[in-house]
Amino acid sequence: MLEVTGEDTGRLIMHLHPKDRSAPSIRKDYFLPEGRSLADGWHTISLDWSPNKLTYLLDGKQVWQVLGKQVPDEPMYLVMNLAVGGDYPGNPDKNTTFPAVFKIDRVRILGNS
């Protein structure tokens, strides 16, 4: 649903990975106003998923929308983690702050099944 990298906490990176792994993923970067950071406090991240429409929201504000055939029509799962290193965004360096913290206050998933 989203990623925030430690070197640019003012950028929210949203992804949509298709079921067919050989097909290209689509993404949208949303930049907070100058000087703001997603690390500065609590935020509400939302994804409203309805037939043929995905609406991504940050603190109640729409920041991306995907329409039509690109919208999945299959079961999904949620992964939440604090990843460090690897190909994306790269390995930590001397400027990386440890320990790193990823705080989640609550998760709510609503749906019709």
UniProtKB/TrEMBL annotation:
Positions of the GH16 domain: 1-113
Annotated InterPro entries: Beta-glucanase-like (IPR000757), ConA-like_dom_sf (IPR013320), Glycosyl_Hydrlase_16 (IPR050546)
A matching Pfam family: Glyco_hydro_16
Gene3D superfamilies: 2.60.120.200
PROSITE patterns documented for this protein: GH16_2 (PS51762)
Record-stated family: Belongs to the glycosyl hydrolase 16 family.
PANTHER family assigned to the protein according to its UniProt record, in alphabetical order: GLYCOSIDE HYDROLASE FAMILY 16 PROTEIN, GLYCOSYL HYDROLASE-RELATED
Protein name per Swiss-Prot or TrEMBL: GH16 domain-containing protein
The organism of origin for this protein: Kocuria aegyptia
